[in-house]
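Researcher: Next entry in the queue.
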Amino acid sequence: MTSKNTLVLQCEETRSQHQNKKLVLDRFWKLLSEGLQITKPRKKSKPTRASILKRLQQKKSQGMKKEHRKKPDL
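Model: Structure for this entry, 74 residues:
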């Protein structure tokens, strides 16, 4: 893209001007088709029941670990 919003594509793969133009047009149509494709938004997945229970169990054990660091109440 230039400062004037012009797309510039060039190709010097072959010695033939006609073949280079064809390659550039093919490349342009490929870029255009890729740009026009709409990607589907990702659906958020719910955490499984087992993963929720595992997280809560780890949270509980971490809390107990910290609770045991305190001095005992007499």
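Model: Residues 1-36 form one domain.
Researcher: Noted, moving on.
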